[in-house]
């Protein structure tokens, strides 16, 4: 009897969560289908109730769908302050571009770093891009790109390939460059081209070492 009661109670408690999930999915589908008015109407109640994912989607609807970044900022900020990584990235991007808010790279980096601390790929890549511009922070750029690359991010892998060609103040390493170009080659044509050009100038021994490095990387990830 007690087991049946607990089961019934767990089902009752799960109903609101299941309803929210279905409502969120429906709103996301409407957003993806560019029916922004419908998506907004569907997600706004949950956003106003304080759900971070819903607030973030509300921000995206206003920002990307309705071209209202200044209004979207408020929704992103509320969700970002709750620690929601996607909202932190969205807010950082607005500060980065100066859309809806005055451009402020320092604030953008702060929010990117908060999201990166949670392992958000977009934030890691954005920080890599920011730090790669400054010769004094090249090693920081590599660190962020390496973290994103380990998560399978093609952009980070391609950027690491470029970095290890010695183009950005880091000592040249053809084996690592070839490996990272190879990892991103399926999705970034420039990576495939760079790998093929690099390969023409590598010794058989270096190419063999690069292929082993690639196999080891894939086996460990």
Automatic annotation (TrEMBL):
<dbReference type="InterPro" id="IPR006597">
    <property type="entry name" value="Sel1-like"/>
</dbReference>
<dbReference type="Pfam" id="PF08238">
    <property type="entry name" value="Sel1"/>
</dbReference>
<keyword id="KW-0732">Signal</keyword>
<dbReference type="InterPro" id="IPR050767">
    <property type="entry name" value="Sel1_AlgK"/>
</dbReference>
<dbReference type="InterPro" id="IPR011990">
    <property type="entry name" value="TPR-like_helical_dom_sf"/>
</dbReference>
<protein>
    <submittedName>
        <fullName>Sel1 repeat-containing protein</fullName>
    </submittedName>
</protein>
<feature type="signal peptide">
    <location>
        <begin position="1"/>
        <end position="19"/>
    </location>
</feature>
């Amino acid at each position: 009897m007690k087991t049946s009661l607990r089961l019934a109670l767990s089902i009752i408690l799960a109903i609101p969560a299941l309803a929210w999930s279905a409502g969120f999915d429906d709103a996301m589908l409407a957003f993806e289908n560019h029916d922004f008015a419908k998506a907004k109407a569907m997600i706004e109640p949950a956003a106003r109730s304080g759900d971070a994912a819903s607030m973030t989607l509300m921000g995206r609807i206003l920002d990307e769908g309705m071209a209202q970044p200044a209004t979207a900022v408020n929704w992103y900020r509320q969700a970002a302050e709750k620690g929601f990584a996607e909202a932190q990235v969205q807010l950082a991007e607005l500060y980065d571009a100066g859309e809806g808010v005055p451009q402020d790279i320092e604030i953008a980096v702060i929010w990117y770093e908060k999201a990166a601390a949670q392992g958000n790929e977009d934030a890691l890549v954005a920080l890599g891009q920011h730090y790669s511009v400054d010769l004094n922070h090249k090693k920081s750029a590599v660190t962020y790109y390496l973290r994103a690359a380990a998560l399978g991010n093609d952009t980070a892998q391609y950027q690491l390939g470029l970095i290890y060609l010695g183009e950005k103040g880091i000592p040249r390493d053809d084996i690592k460059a070839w490996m990272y170009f190879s990892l991103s080659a399926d999705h970034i044509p420039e990576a495939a081209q760079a790998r093929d050009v690099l390969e023409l100038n590598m010794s058989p021994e270096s190419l063999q070492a690069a292929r082993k490095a690639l196999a080891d990387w894939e086996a460990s990830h």
